[in-house]
Amino acid sequence: MDLTTVIGCLMAWILVIGAMASGGNLGAYIDFPSILITVGGTAGAVTMAHSSDVLKSAAGAFKSAFVSNEPNLLAMVQTIVSFAEKARREGLLALESDVADLDDEFLRKSIQLVVDGTDPELVKAILDTEIGILEDRHSANKAIFDAMAELAPAYGMIGTLIGLIAMLGNLSDVSALGPGMAVALITTMYGSMIANMFAIPTSKKLAARSAKEIVSMELMVEGILAIQAGENPRIVEEKLKVFLPPRLRTRLEAEQKEKE
Fold this sequence. Notes:
Helix content is 81%, strand content 0%. The protein is mostly helical and 260 residues long.
């Protein structure tokens, strides 16, 4: 479970709804026609703009925003350096026995390509293509929530216009002014809430997750190609250190000193 997503989501909704309830009449903010216009309109427009496959994938991506499954870059560097030491000592074929034990599918595939004697340029081309396809898939998932962030306020504005038209068309009927004004204002609020308390935070979380996953895959490509080139494990490690944030570099260096 990703605590930052859960805590941030709860803070946003509980505090905002709590502030609304503090006025003593939370029911005043609930209007069924406004929900139909903003939620229904936004959902319909997003569905219309994307294929069913992308919508299904985005549903899975939304779930992943609440599950912490970030790559462990430090462990990854240590694993690849250990492979570099083994390959240097026993040859590339010796890595074949480690392939089945790897949890990361991309790393497993990378090692297998090297063990199979694939040309280094072809290895890089295959892995780069896989990274590119992953980026495209992540971008498509993120685009769903970007579309929600864009469309929800727009449907809120449509609701505002509908409410104003209903109100202006019945100026002689005092009883219609209140519902018309409610639809006009509440739809704007609903649209803003959908965008700022759901769609935009989810989109940003998915973008951050994607960036970290791409970095981890680029780290693996750099390491695997260095191993295939027969580079010294210390050089491999130095190459991979650049992918680590400062705190992880410090931790890696501290662990090395302890071993020495």
